[in-house]
Specification:
Number of helices: 14
CATH superfamily of the largest domain: Spore Coat Polysaccharide Biosynthesis Protein SpsA, Chain A
Helix content: 40-55%
Radius of gyration: 22 Å
Largest sheet: 9 strands, mixed
Number of domains: 2
CATH architecture of the largest domain: Alpha-Beta Complex
Strand content: 15-25%
CATH class of the largest domain: Alpha Beta
Order of helices and strands: EHEHEHEEHEEHEHHEHHHHHHH
CATH topology of the largest domain: Spore Coat Polysaccharide Biosynthesis Protein SpsA, Chain A
Shape: elongated
Number of strands: 9
Structural class: alpha/beta
């Protein structure tokens, strides 16, 4: 019986030969050495299987499991089921983990036993190369932002394996292409979240990413996840409200008075429901709503002083802007400020 490793890296692989070797090498060169790698291979038609076999022969920590290609969710659940580590670290076959990634995330979670999911900041390579995705680091802000969107880069995440097992929390195939977002929402009932405010993963964007290939399907699934969260606030949105909520969540704003006024009414409705039901922590939730309200009004700054006035007259704007943002907003609205 092999000793239990501290961490298990779960990596699905299907037709990934272009970047696979670099991805695996980034795992094997981690400063944390006490880990295993569970690779779920989906009968690729390129050179992926040959690359995997070569790595498997050289490093006994690598376990390659073959199954029929049945999509990402199936591969993820198989990998998590076979994982033996105290922690499950996600990794994609086209990304790069920086050398200290596992050491820093595992050390953080060892020091914070109440945290069940820990992600990191991420630098983008490939398309939009050089961008850094900075997600909130504290639990309250993450769970409040989750009302609108996922706050983790999935392949940067480390999870507690016993948490998934205790509450029987697999990835749900009914939420394909946003299965991670849905899992985080379910996990929010049982644990706390964190993101390390440091780039520890290079995330590759290219034409074969799930987000690139299935953008419409991913957004539709995310809508269902958001809808379920609205129901928890005792809000059953109309079709018009659902469309509006998607526009706000995806920051696809319209610079007209009707959109701004309806957005203000909708966000106030959400705020009032949470004040009654207390599903999300305050004042963190109101601050998140205020950020979205500011983004709506800032986008409509071409409407001049009207945007400035409606922003400040709303109870949503009680969270103060810092002076720099306040001045920039005033200038965009044509207001003399200072």
């Amino acid at each position: 019986m092999l000793p239990q490793p501290l961490a298990t890296i779960v990596m699905p692989v299907y037709n990934s030969d272009r970047f696979l070797q670099e991805a695996i090498n980034s795992i094997l060169s981690q400063t944390l050495k006490d880990f295993e790698v569970v690779i779920v291979a989906g009968n690729s038609t390129d050179k992926s299987d040959a690359i995997l076999e070569n790595f498997r022969k050289k490093d006994k920590r690598i376990n390659v499991v073959h199954q029929e290609h049945d999509g990402l969710v199936s591969a993820l659940n198989m990998g998590c089921l076979l994982a033996r580590g105290k922690y499950i670290a996600r990794m994609d076959a086209d990304d790069i983990s920086l050398q200290e990634r596992l050491e820093k995330q595992v050390s953080f979670m060892e020091a914070h036993p109440d945290v069940g999911v820990c992600g990191t900041w991420t630098k983008i390579i490939g398309c939009k190369s050089g961008d850094i995705w900075r997600y909130p680091s504290d639990d309250e802000r993450i769970r409040c932002e989750m009302f609108f969107n996922s706050c983790f880069v999935h392949p940067s995440v480390v999870m507690r394996r016993d948490l998934l097992a205790l509450f029987d929390l697999p990835y749900d195939p009914k939420f394909i292409h946003a299965e991670d977002y849905e899992l985080w929402v379910r996990l929010s009932r049982y644990t706390r979240f964190a993101n390390l405010p440091k780039v520890l993963l290079y995330h590759r964007l290219h034409s074969n990413n799930v987000g690139s290939m299935y953008t419409a399907e991913q957004e539709t699934t995310a809508d269902r996840i958001r809808h379920n969260q609205l129901l928890q606030l005792d809000i059953t949105p109309s079709q018009e409200e659902s469309i509006l909520h998607r526009s706000i969540a995806s920051r696809k704003f319209q610079a007209d008075k009707d959109f701004v006024e309806k957005s203000e009414e909708w966000l106030r409705k959400i705020k009032q429901s949470n004040e009654t039901l207390q599903c999300y922590p305050e004042p963190a939730f109101s601050k998140v709503l205020a950020e979205y309200w500011f983004a709506v009004c800032n986008h409509a700054s071409s409407l001049g002083s009207w945007s400035w006035k409606i922003f400040w007259q709303s109870p949503l704007s009680k969270s103060e802007l810092n002076p720099k943002r306040k001045m920039a907003f005033a200038v965009k609205c044509g207001i003399k400020y200072g």
